[in-house]
Design brief:
Elements lengths: L1 E12 L2 E13 L9 H12 L20 E6 L8 E6 L6 H14 L11 H9 L7 E8 L8 H14 L4 H16 L2 E4 L2 E4 L11 H24 L1 E7 L2 E7 L5 H9 L7 E5 L4 E4 L2 E5 L4 E5 L18 H13 L1
Antiparallel strand pairs: 1-2, 2-7, 3-4, 5-9, 5-10, 6-7, 8-9, 11-12, 12-13
Length: about 325
């Protein structure tokens, strides 16, 4: 039965407590509606009897204290009309540690090509400085709408399998990694209002492996189609960071609407929004890019929801979180 389920969470917004509803179009699986520990029995039965963890994983990679992942809604203050982003806490899922291990192993055995992917903002600035400015050059950004839940699971598995073959991975290891992939993607569920909800397709929101898996699919899509689009629209520069894309194109030859339409045609699951430059400048990631007749000028950009607050040194947060806050400010 397909339903639209309201997932309710309380959010502190402008000093007031709001009750935010996240509408999720999902499948309700009736055998799991009164969950308890029943769902975990089936998950562990699968983990131990289907060969996934029995001989390739240490017991430390099994989540021995599982809990049902829950969904919450976060208001995106920097977006028009303040849409709500669904956030799922996946740490209690039986395959959480397996997803971490899967990510680690895939990175070492079959690294991504990262042909068009940016490592950080400094790399964007460096590559942008090497991009020539023509009189007809224009800037625009493209954004993928809801990336994770629109990634086709079966198609991505085939892409990962082909990548492992190209990297000459051992056949037994290759099959085991694909078994892990099946186990992780099958645990695509969360709780709301006492019910367990299962996504129709796509990757689990909150799974440690979802980011890398989405990269496998999207980078394959880019490597397959972008060269043709570059020639058709005279795109002179292309930069991608997860689901955010920046392009430099010939505005005398084409328009951003035509480019957006062709990107949407790349795959039926992928939907793109587009934003053209305004007054010869555009905001991308955490910088504002200004276009002049002779060069690119960059300055720091902060979203309207940004605050200067960071974690106090004396707090009880893990050291990794404190170090990340300093690195963020330094890299900016």
């Amino acid at each position: 039965m397909q339903v639209v389920v309201p997932c309710v969470s309380s959010v502190l917004y402008n000093g007031h407590l709001y009750c935010c509803t996240v509408l999720v179009d999902l499948m309700v699986r009736t055998p799991y509606h009164c969950v308890g520990n029943v769902i975990f029995y089936f998950m562990y039965h699968y983990l131990f009897t289907e060969g996934t963890m029995v001989y390739c994983c240490h017991i430390s990679k099994i989540n021995l204290n599982p809990s049902t992942p829950s969904i919450k809604g976060l208001i995106r203050l920097h977006k028009p009309e303040h849409p709500i982003r669904p956030v799922v806490n996946w740490r209690g899922v039986p395959a959480y540690k397996l997803a971490q291990l899967f990510t680690q192993k895939i990175k070492s055995i079959a690294p991504l090509p990262n042909t068009y992917t940016l490592g950080n903002t400094r790399e964007l600035i460096r590559r942008l400085e090497a991009t020539p400015i023509l009189p007809q050059s224009s800037l625009a950004s493209l954004d993928i709408s809801i990336l994770y839940t629109n990634i086709p699971v079966k198609e991505t598995k085939d892409i990962i399998a082909n990548t492992l073959v190209k990297n000459k991975a051992d056949p037994q290891i290759r099959q085991e990694l694909l078994n892990w992939y099946d186990t992780i993607t099958h645990q695509n569920y969360f709780s709301s209002n006492g019910k367990i909800l299962i996504q129709h397709d796509g990757l689990a929101m909150g799974a440690p492996s979802s980011g890398l898996t989405a990269e496998f699919f999207f980078q394959n899509l880019q490597d397959t189609h972008l060269v043709q689009l570059f020639g058709k629209h005279k795109i002179t520069a292309y930069f991608c960071c997860v689901d955010d894309i920046l392009i430099v194109y010939d505005s005398h030859h084409t328009g951003i609407k035509n480019i957006q339409d062709d990107f949407i045609m790349l795959h039926p699951n992928m939907k793109f929004t587009a934003e053209p430059e305004s007054d010869n400048q555009i905001n991308f990631l955490d910088i504002t890019i200004h276009k002049t007749p002779t060069n690119w000028i960059t300055s720091i950009y902060r979203k309207p929801s940004f605050t200067d607050s960071i974690i106090p040194c004396s707090s009880n947060h893990p050291p990794q979180h404190k170090h990340a806050a300093i690195r963020y400010l330094y890299n900016s």
